[in-house]
Each structure stands twice: as structure tokens, then as C-alpha cells.
Amino acid sequence: MSLMDLLNKKDILPLESEALHGRDEEVEVPSEHFVKGTPLKGPFADNLQIAVFGMGCFWGVERRFWELEGVFSTSAGYSGGFTKNPTYREVCTGMTGHNEVVLVVYDPELISYESLLITFWEDHDPTQGMRQGNDQGTQYRSGIYYNTSEEKELIESTKNKYQSQLDLNGLGKITTEIKELDHYFYAEHYHQQYLAKNPDGYCALAGTGVKIK
After folding, report:
1. Structural domain boundaries of the chain?
2. Helix 58-66 crosses helix 113-122 at what angle (to 10 degrees)?
3. Residues paired with 132 in a beta bridge
4. DSSP labels, 88-113
5. Helix/strand/coil (H, E, C) string of 135-198?
């Protein structure tokens, strides 16, 4: 297989039969959130809920969500694919099917799932397919991974509202992957709260400038 074939393959999601197998061992991550000092891993308190979003490189996405009032904890990870406990290097090959995502742990009494969705739609470009800005490949696709049918309904309603505004501004069709959350795998420790540890680090997070009305 040529280099060009490999590059093109990164834009195509693999079949489950093609995906890397992975491993049983989970990666080790810090016990506490570097910024918030809250637990990075569950089980979380019963009053808290989780949401999982893919918006391109997870470094900037995680920072965007930990800054929101009502968000208890965040982490960088992988979801949407097949490989069990993948490594970052494996995800970068495009042969895991996974997306770079952020797990958001939030208090619904302080911030609603709909508010999180508005941040999702407005703070990246959900029309770009298998890329986000200069970051190209299936791991950078726009994605929402829901837990309940009620969440799915909110996703679809906010998506339709945002698409209407995109249409009015002459922009493209939403390509966001919307699917039920299967597994969430934590990314390696050095990815967690990366931009808090590396303030001048890479961040390509950018919205379309269009707002939901």
C-alpha cells in the first residue's frame, strides 16, 4: 500500500473486522482533574450526568468545557470506534474507528444538556466531515455520543435549529456523527487537561461564527 493510500484511508472509517484489536489493560490517568481538583474517573455522584462530544483535537475542546459553570470534571478520550483501550498512536492510524472526544461530567441543576449542545454546535464547525480545520482524519470528525432517547431528541432539535442558521448564512450541511455511547476510553495521562499544563500548546478549536437563535 502506498503512502497516498494510507493517507486516504485515514479519511475512511474502518469496518469492525479491519480495526485493531487493542488490549484489556486500561491506560493510567491522574486521579484528579489538573484544573478543578475533582475526580477524573467515576463512579461519580448520583446528581451528576455525563456527555461525550467530538469537536476535533480534544485539547482545546476539553478546555472549552471545563471553563463552563456547572461542569464538575472533564477528560480527554476516545469513542465511536471498535478498538479496546486504544493508544493515541493507534487512533492516529485511522484503524481504530475512534474519535478524539471529551467526557463532560456536569450538574444538570447548574447547566443543562441543551446548553452543552449549544456550546458544541457553536464552538466548532460541524460541516467538515472527517476533519476539523487543518486536522484531517476520522479521529477529528464531529460527533455526539448520547446516553438516552431524551438526549437524542435534544440533539436532533438543536441540530435542526443550527442547520437553519447555517443555511441562512450560506454554509454547508452538518456532518456530525450522532450515535449512542458504547464505550469511552480515557486517553493517556499527558493528554489530560493538556492546555492547562501547556498554555501555549496547539489549539485549533474554532466555530463558524453562526449562533443558534
Report:
1. 16-196
2. 140
3. 135
4. HHHHHTT-S--EEEEEEEE-TTTS-H
5. EECHHHCEEEEECCHHHHHHHHHHHHHHHHHHHHCCCCCCCCEEEECCCCEECCHHHCCHHHHC
Torsion of CA 37, 43, 48, 51, to 10 degrees: 90
CATH superfamily of 16-196: Peptide methionine sulphoxide reductase MsrA (3.30.1060.10)
pLDDT tens-digit map of 133-188? 999 999 999 999 999 999 999 999 999 999 999 999 999 999 999 999 999 999 99
Among residues of the chain, what percentage have pLDDT more than 90? 95
Q: What are the pLDDT digits (tens) for 13-22?
A: 999 999 999 9
Axis-axis angle for helices 113-122, 149-168 (nearest 10): 30
pLDDT band with cut points at 50, 70 and 90 for residue 198: very high
Instruction: Judge whether 20 and 9 are in contact, CB under 8 Å.
Output: no
Catalytic residues: 57
